[in-house]
Amino acid sequence: MSSPKKQAVVDPVTTAVVLGYVNPDHCWDFLFPAVNVPGLSGKIVKFSKEDFRRVSSLHSPGSNVARVKFGHESDSYSLETHSLDGIVYQQTEVATDHMPNRVDRARTAESTLNAMTLNHEYDAAQTARDPSNYDAGSTDVLSGTDQWSDFDNSDPVTDIKERMEVVRSKIGAKPNRGLIPEKVWLKVSEHPKVVGRISNNSDQIMTPELFARLVGLDKVKIAGSTEFADGEFQDIWGKDVVLARVASNP
């Protein structure tokens, strides 16, 4: 009897699609990058605000050197398991070397992975947009003439810079990333007080890269992912701009 290892079959078509699959419209890892962990559950270290405490380093010859101790906490994590089966109908498997069959298998693999990552996208958006996940004073709602659709009275650049300072006052460091939903970006990119800051050239086009430099962020990403629900396409990120401090090497 052959071993299970010898019975295993690797489909080169679907494998090529699955490895390194990325949906360019999804933004979940822009705010919540994936982190490798050693097991399905365990402990992680959470550093406290002690890193920002000022300690005198003044030292006299012969005296003891001041010792610093940085506090940290441990927290538990437990990974969830998610899986979906993508169906390829039997008639498409009859001639595996036929190009249409390869395309069908590749499309099935891609659609299945897209469904998986769409769940990540939705969960990330729900987490980032939930005001209860933030300290008091860390969220704001623009109303009336303060809304960025009011070109005469609003100022997106000033608003974002002020909110960046709020983040810095809460965590001790400025945010380095900004996520802007597609519908909001349509207003921001055409806003006279935004475009007017970069050039007097009427043909100048505002880009996420230019806007990031304008407000002082490392990266700005436009969130345009949607889901089909209740008979229509809906924006997953709504109209909420998210400013975050994201580690470059989490």
User: How is the main sheet built?
Assistant: 3 strands, mixed
- Terminus-to-terminus distance: 46 Å
Overall strand count: 7
Tally of contiguous helical segments: 8
Poorly predicted tracts of residues: none
> What is the H/E order?
HHHEEHHEHHHEEEE
Strand order of the largest sheet: 4-3-7
- Rg to the nearest angstrom? 25 Å
Question: What is the average per-residue confidence, as pLDDT, rounded to a whole number?
Answer: 84
- Based on helices, strands and strand pairing, what is the structural class? alpha+beta
Structural description of this entry:
This protein has 250 residues and is an alpha+beta fold. It is 32% helix and 14% strand. The chain has helices spanning 4-7, 12-18, 28-31, 99-129, 156-171, 182-188, 192-195, 208-215, and strands at residues 41-47, 72-78, 177-181, 219-223, 226-229, 232-235, 242-244.
Which helices and strands, and how do they pair?
Elements lengths: L3 H4 L4 H7 L9 H4 L9 E7 L24 E7 L20 H31 L26 H16 L5 E5 H7 L3 H4 L12 H8 L3 E5 L2 E4 L2 E4 L6 E3 L6
Parallel strand pairs: 3-4
Antiparallel strand pairs: 1-2, 3-7, 5-6
Helix pairs in contact: 2-4
Concise account of the structure shown:
The chain has 250 residues and is of the alpha+beta class.
Pick out its properties.
250 residues, alpha+beta, 3-stranded mixed beta sheet, two-stranded antiparallel sheet, 7 strands, 32% helix, flat
